[in-house]
Amino acid sequence: MALVTLREVLQDARKRKYAVGGFNVFNFETLGAVVEVAEELKTPLVVGIPERLFKFVDVDTLSAAMVRVAKRAHVPIALHLDHGYTRDGIMKAIHWGFTSVMFDGSSLSFADNLNRTKEICRIAHSLGVSVEGELGYIGSCSNIEAISDEHLVTADAAAEFVDRTEVDALAVAIGNHHGAYRGRTMLNFSRLNELSSTIDIPLVMHGGAKLAAADYRNSISSGISKVNIATDMSLTAAEKLKSELSKKATSNYIHLMSVVKKGVKDSARSYMLNFDCILKAAAM
């Protein structure tokens, strides 16, 4: 099944009412971990790198590995540029062979976000690459209670945005937030249902880490087709390193890599089990 577009993966998820995990990776261990779990559980997968990671990682080498692994996989995998902010970053991802890019214009005015997303869609679609956009506030909040209705995307705005940009998937603000887990997230399922019934493309949840099982179920039944797990991948890796070094400070790095990989696999598996995506790759 191998390398596919985001549009292909998410259209199936939307049709059959499950969510695909969008896992950001940052080295070979995390890449191998999420792909191996997806193959074990026979689930479709989205593997991403955020543009902000470019300054920390040799992305030319890592992206080549991502493409190679995806092409050899036994489950459908979309390779995704997460939170692309610049045209240069987006074009790099397309050049590497990614099948999906996200333009995050959520910090811009609605008009600027729409116009820039539309231009990215024009370029990407001409090359067979899917595009994800973002609307509303999904920032990193130190105080979850500070997220109010004014931060949430409205159905009218989403409908106009989707119609005029022709974006393939839309990340929406419904009370979710990026970054480290900071207590119980209060999701607005009424707004999510309204969005899902108004626009005819898959919806994406960013900041999907450590929600209650019921929140995942309700999100999926209300229209979410992809749940992004990013920061939690890094936190899980760091926690495993700290735990292992506290037991044996002289552990060698080769051993630590295997510990990190196992920890990330366990984490990814627990998320996938909540997304109702198990065995879905077999029917695609």
From TrEMBL:
Cofactor(s), names only, from the UniProt record: Zn(2+)
Keywords attached to this entry: Metal-binding, Zinc
Binding-site positions, Zn(2+) 2: 104, 134
Keyword Metal-binding present in the record's keywords: the answer is yes
- Residue numbers annotated as active site: 82
Q: How is the cofactor bound?
A: Binds 2 Zn(2+) ions per subunit. One is catalytic and the other provides a structural contribution.
**The name this protein goes by in its record:** Fructose-bisphosphate aldolase, class II
Look up and give the organism this protein is from: Dendrosporobacter quercicolus
Kindly list the organism's lineage.
Bacteria, Bacillati, Bacillota, Negativicutes, Selenomonadales
